[in-house]
Target: DNA mismatch repair protein MutT
Amino acid sequence: MTTWRTRIEPFTRPLFFAWSRMSRGMTLGVRGVAVDAEGRVLLVKHTYLAGWWLPGGGVDKGETTHGAAIRELREEAGLIVRGEPRLLSVHSNERFFPGDHVLVFRVDAFDLTERTSHGEIAEIAWFHPDALPEDATRATRDRLAEIFGGAAPDPNW
Model:
């Protein structure tokens, strides 16, 4: 599904990156790998980007990475994390955005409720790691292959 946000995102991305670079210098993001009792992982489709992604986003000023992962899972997918997310890996995202780093956390205990983010996420769904949708992003596929398929962790996003 192509939305107006998907169509304008390529034009607004450079402005966002310029603002981020001027205001932050280095950026830090998180992604959450939520695994349900059936071994499926939660993926999200954004209203402004193509494909299926692991839920996540930027770490806010004054926020811990664990706190950001918990917040992003709640906002984007309606997951209320029980316990602490477990850090799995850290990646440099230089190819996409110089100075950006992404931390991947795993969550196995959670409750489901309503999302708090409206307008950002078009769809959420659960998938088995060996049966991902065709349009799952490369980074999503790579991270899940590292976690579930025994692939060597790649330090690059």
